Amino acid sequence: MYKKFLIVMIAGLSLSACTGNQDLVQQSLNNIKDEMLGIQSTIGDMQVQIQGLDKDIRVNTESINRNSDAISQLREEMTVTNSDVMEIKERVTELERTKMELSADHSPIVMKSGDEEVIIVEDNIQDKIGLYTYAYELYRNGKYAESETKFNEFLMKYPDVERSDNAMYWLGEIKYAEKDYESAVMKFQELVERYPEGNKVPDALLKMGYSYGNISDKDNAVKSLQKVVNMYPESDAARLATQKLRFWGVN
C-alpha cells in the first residue's frame, strides 16, 4: 500500500514539474512574441522615417537640381550681359575715335619741289571715316547684308589703316549674329593672322571660342579661350573667357 502511494506521489510531482516547465516555456514564447511585436513596430516606425527621408532627399535633390540649373542659367545670362556691356563699350570707343578723327587737324601739307610749292591734301579722311561709320551703323541696326558689303568695301579701299582690323572683326560679328559660326571662325582667324598687333585680336579670339562652342567643337573652343586668358590677361575678353571656361568646368 505504501509503495503504491509513493509511486503516485512521484508521478504527481513529475507532472507538476512538467507543467511548470511548460508555463515557463510559454511565458518565454510570449515574451519573445512581445519583443517581436515591439521590434516589428520599431521597424514599421523606421520604415516610415526612411520613407520620409527618401521623400526629403527627393525634394532636396530636386531643389539642388533646380538651384544648379538656376545657377547655370545665371552664369550664362551673366556672360551674355557682360558681352552686351562689352559691345556698348566698343560702340562708345568707336564713336569717340570717330569724333577725334573728325576733329583732328588735317591741314594741307606744303612741300617744295624746286622753285614750286606742292600742296598735298589728304582728301579721303572724310570718306574713310564716313564709310566705316556707315558700315558700323548698318551692323548696329541689324542690316547685316548691307553692313557686310560696306565693310568689305572699306577693306578693299583701306586694307592697312588703323580701323582695318576693326572692319574685319565686325565682318566676323556679322557672321556670328547670323549664326554662321564656321564663317565667323574664319573671319576672326583671318583678323588674328592679318592684324596680329591689332586692338581687336583679344575680342576675335574670344568670339572664336564662342563660335567653336556653338558648333560643339569644345576642344578648339577651350584652346581659343585659354589663349585669350594667357595672352591678354588684363583684357575684358580674358574676363569673359574665364567665365565661360568656368561655366564649362575648365580650370
From TrEMBL:
The keyword Acetylation does not apply. Keywords: Coiled coil, Signal, TPR repeat. The keyword Calcium does not apply. Residues 1-19 form the signal peptide. Residues 71-105 form a coiled coil. GO terms for biological process: cell division. TPR repeats lie at residues 165-198, 202-235. Residues 163-237 form the Outer membrane lipoprotein BamD-like domain. NCBIfam families: tol_pal_ybgF. HAMAP family: CpoB. This is Tol-pal system protein YbgF.
